[in-house]
Amino acid sequence: MQESPKETYQSIKEALKKRDLPDTFVTSINLIEGGPLSARREYLRVWRNEHIFDICVAHFGKGMFVSWWLTKAQSSKGLWIAIAVFFLRSHFILLIYRPIWFIPRIIFRVIFLPLIFVILGFLIREGTIRIEDSILEVPVLGALYERFFHPITYFKIDTALMFQESVRLAVHEVIDEITKSKGIRALSESERAPIMNDLFK
After folding, report:
1. Would the pLDDT of 155 be above 80?
2. Stretch 81-102: mean pLDDT, rounded?
3. For the chain, how big is the Rg over CA atoms in Å?
4. Which pLDDT belongs to residue 172?
5. Average per-residue pLDDT in the chain?
6. How buried is 58 (Cβ within 10 angstroms: 0-12 exposed, 13-18 middle, 19+ buried)?
7. Residue of 53, 1, 64 lying closest to 27 (CA atoms)
8. Are 150 and 49 in contact (CB under 8 A)?
9. How does DSSP assign 71-117, residue by residue?
10. With contact defined as beta carbons under 8 Å apart, do 155 and 162 qualify?
11. What is the dihedral angle through the alpha carbons of 90, 130, 132, 86, rounded to the nearest 10 degrees?
């Protein structure tokens, strides 16, 4: 079959919208096929918190394939944030302390400074300040943020698995609709199972 990738992506978007997944964003991205000067391939990116599904629909010979890759969000800004925190730390403390200079400096450092970082951590975790993926990449600071604001919990694992399964079912739903409309036999459950062999060893 030779379905249009754009139309297939649109069908997947509609299948995902129907499921009303919380905190989920869908966008199109272009990833390189090979090296820096190679052609780019359009993918559909489904994003929830730190988990990302990159879905590819492409023609191959007289047929087509649909693949998806589950990965984690990573940012290249983490190092720059670490450098900025190192150089601006003293100025930041002075800027915050100056309006409340009447508070002894030791009390400010022990009480108010941690309180400010707790508020910032809460705002980042809730998505009000959208730099969580960058913060997690910062040495030391990222580990502290993950320990206090981003711990692995049963609920987090459960919702991540539900997100993964919901996207998988949405993709399979679209594939089944296409094969049915073309009069092609639907894949069995064993045929849908991923191939775990490493082809590039």
Report:
1. yes
2. 55
3. 23
4. 92
5. 78
6. middle
7. 53
8. no
9. EE---S-HHHHHHHHHHHHHHHHHHHHGGGTTS-HHHIIIIIHHHHH
10. no
11. -20
